[in-house]
Specification:
It is a single chain. The protein is α+β, with helices and mostly antiparallel strands. The chain has a domain of 35 residues. Helix content is 17%, strand content 14%. The protein has a two-stranded antiparallel ribbon with strand order 1-2. It is extended.
Length: 66
């Protein structure tokens, strides 16, 4: 699922920021499943700021935990 950051809170709450995301492709996952919509749906995600291959990301995480 891909989204675009519309805005984020200025200050963290318990070390976390509140972020509003728009979903151009709706609630469709990368596996083609459609998620049911509910108001105030909780979610977690990563904000990717560099274009990397999946293998590069996995190797970086493995290197980090060494």
């Amino acid at each position: 699922m891909e989204g675009i950051v519309q805005n984020k809170s200025l200050l963290p709450n318990d070390g976390k920021y509140s972020v509003r995301i728009s979903l151009p492709k709706g609630l469709n996952t990368s596996f083609g499943n459609e998620l049911p919509f509910r108001q105030q749906m909780p979610a977690s995600g990563e904000i990717i700021i560099q274009d990397k291959r999946l293998l590069q990301r996995l190797l970086e995480k493995m290197w980090f935990f060494r």
